[in-house]
Every structure is written in C-alpha cells, then in structure tokens.
Amino acid sequence: MATIKDVAALAGISYTTVSHVVNKTRPVSEEVRVKVEAAIKTLDYVPSAVARSLKAKTTATIGLLVPNSLNPYFAELARGIEDYCERNGYCVILCNSDDNPDKQRSYLRVLLEKRIDGLIVASAGGDSGLAQGLAAVRTPMVIVDRGLDGVDADLVRIDHEYGAYLATRHLLELGHRDIATISGPVTTSVAQMRLAGFCRALKDAGLEVPSHRMLESDFTSTGGYNAAALLLERNPPSAIFAANDMIGIGVLRAAAERNIRVPTQLSVIGFDDIQMSRYVYPALTTVGQSILQLGEMAAEVLLRRIATPELATRQRIVTPSIVMRESTAPLAGVFAEYR
C-alpha cells in the first residue's frame, strides 16, 4: 500500500507539502496541487484516517449499539440514524449485541477504543453492568428506545405507556372486553411501560386486569406465536394487544393455523409500525411513529451534543398514534356490551 512518502517522491516534493494538499491545512500553488493529485491517482494512495483524526481530534465516526439487528424495528432505526449522519458528514459503525449483555459491554469497549465522536445506544434492557459502564463514558451519547438508570445522557424514545394505553383503548372502543396482552420480557423498561398502559386502559374502563390474559414473551414473532398458541387453545379472548409488531405477526400466524379469522373472530393490534406490518395479511393495526424519523431525531440530538457538549441533557419523548389497518374490527354481536 502506498504511503504519503511514496506520493511525495513521485511528485518530487516534500511529504509535508503532500499533507497540506490532502488535509487542506495550508494553501499551495496550483502546479503543486496538480502534481500531488496526479501522484495520488497513480499510486492509488488512501490517506490514513487514523493519522488525520489524531491531528483533527475528530474521527467523523458515530458508534451505534443495537440489541438485535434482525428485529426490523432496530434495522429501520439504524437506517434513519445512518441517513442523517451521512448527510452531515459522519460514518456509522453498527454493532449488534444479539440481546447479550456481555456482548454489549465488549462492543462498547471496541467503539470507545476507536475514538468515536459520539455514541447512540439502543439497550437490550435489564443490564445494570452496561448502565454502569455507560455512566463512566465521557463521549457524547444518546440513549434510544429504552432508558438506562444512572446514565446521564440525552434520551429519545416513544411514549411507550401512552401508546399501549391507546392500543388497548382502541380495542375497548370497538366493544372488546375480553382483551389479552402478550408483553415483552418484563425485565425491560419498554415491556413494563407498555404493560402499564394496557392495565391503565382496562382500569379506566372499569375492568379488572385478569392475570391469565397477560402472557410474557420476547419481542419476536416466535415468542408471539408461542404465547398466542396458549391463549387461543381454549376459550380464546376476542382481542389481543401485542407489545410489538413482531409479536403481533406471530399472533396472526397462530390464529391462521387454528382457522380463527382476523379480525371478525379475533382483533389484533401491535406496537411500533414497522414496515413489515403493512404487508402481512391481514395488515396489522398498530401504534407508532415513523421509526426512520425517530432514528434521524436521535442522530440530530447526538450531533448537536457533539457540537455543544455543555448543554444540559434532555429527553425527547415522541407521542405515538393509532395506525388503522385490517386486523381490528368491532366485536361481533352487541356493540360495547360485556361478553
């Protein structure tokens, strides 16, 4: 691989002058600039990003730590972050932890060793070790989706509790009273907030929260499918609030295998509004906000933090709304009466 000294030798000038041309740190004559650019092209010279970052004290690189890149939510979130960063001259290093706290902490060390300018973390949740590690980080940072106790950083997330409240109230307004929920892992703050919204909506409607109608899963289609199989085996509910769209997609599959028609026999509503939810059959009614825009918002907050690190940290909580599609319908029979 060619070096800056090789370029200087071919151009017949000093390597410090080549450095000035490459890094635009000092004006040079047009003749010299042309010689340097010709030598660079001939040798296919690539400047050292490490050397340039040491001089500039910036790498123009953002670290992004996500818990599961197979989950379309995080894939769409990462795309929004990457799009905004690219438009503003930053590259993004994506690290997928596979919901593994040890892997999260390992990737965090790797990213910090690379002297990234900023860090965006979408936590796997339930990991006090990661929170402790992040608490000591001095790199500008934004937390997305799931807050971390003890970490003083900007936070960007959906209003999980209110979104779940909206989803459950939507089912209630359709006349459903026997409503079940399949939550995510209750060790995560997201699952806790969405479960709280579900319970609050039922209590506001004067209904008890039946423990046998609340099942815990993970945030995957497989988890939703397995939990729905239990709910639908005997005495199925008339409606299910799935704590995310992936769970909801699993519910649709379990219902189809049992010849339970959605939405005439079973209404299903999800959460997140991932793109996939528009193309399953029936298309999934859900609660959410543009995930791409959420990612762009997180990147915007981080770049502002990099530019002005003295700003006080803040939370940006996005209000979700119902996205009406095909998987929910009024309860068959007498509308708005108890089953």
Fold and architecture overview:
With 339 residues, the protein is α/β, with parallel strands linked by helices. The chain has 12 helices and 12 strands. Strands 2-1-3-4-5-11 form a 6-stranded parallel beta sheet, with helices on both faces. The chain has a 4-stranded parallel beta sheet with strand order 7-6-8-9, with helices on both faces. Residues 334-339 have low confidence and may be disordered.
Number of strands: 12
Strand adjacency order, main sheet:
2-1-3-4-5-11
Please mark out the parts with pLDDT under 50 across 5 or more consecutive residues, or reply none.
334-339
Gyration radius from CA atoms, angstroms:
26 Å
The CATH architecture of the largest domain can be named as 3-Layer(aba) Sandwich
In quaternary terms, these chains amount to: single chain
**Number of DSSP helices?**
12
The chain-level mean pLDDT equals: 88
Q: In which range does the helix fraction lie? A: 40-55%
Succession of helices and strands: HHHHEHEHEHEEHEHEHEHEEHEE
Q: State which percent range the strand residues make up.
A: 5-15%
CATH class of the largest domain: Alpha Beta
CATH superfamily descriptor of the largest domain: Response regulator
> What is the global morphology?
elongated
Separation of the first and last Cα atoms = 75 Å
What is the CATH fold-level name of the largest domain? Rossmann fold
Biggest β-sheet description: 6 strands, parallel
Based on secondary structure, the structural category is alpha/beta
- How many separate structural domains? 3
